[in-house]
Design goal:
Helix content: over 70%
Order of helices and strands: HH
CATH architecture: Orthogonal Bundle
Largest sheet: none
Number of strands: 0
Number of domains: 1
Distance between the termini: 47 Å
CATH class: Mainly Alpha
Radius of gyration: 17 Å
Length: about 70
């Protein structure tokens, strides 16, 4: 969990997010660690959302080009 957000690809962020959720669901951490995990999970979710928004925009652009060519 040490890579900076700008270095994470979608799959990396998603996989780390899954691990964060598992750790939170398993419990057994103190409040400070739980908060740290929660904050990291929020950050990872935002990274995933940005990747998905970018992919959606690229697909929309290709579809718009195809429609213009028809």
């Amino acid at each position: 969990m040490s890579e900076s957000p700008s270095e994470l690809g979608y799959e990396q962020a998603r996989d780390e997010l899954v691990e964060v959720v598992r750790a939170l669901e398993a419990g057994g951490t103190d409040l400070e660690e739980s908060l740290r995990l929660w904050e990291r999970g929020e950050e990872l979710a935002r990274i995933c959302e940005r990747w998905l928004e970018g992919a959606r925009a690229r697909l929309d652009a290709v579809l718009a080009e195809d429609a213009a060519d028809d």
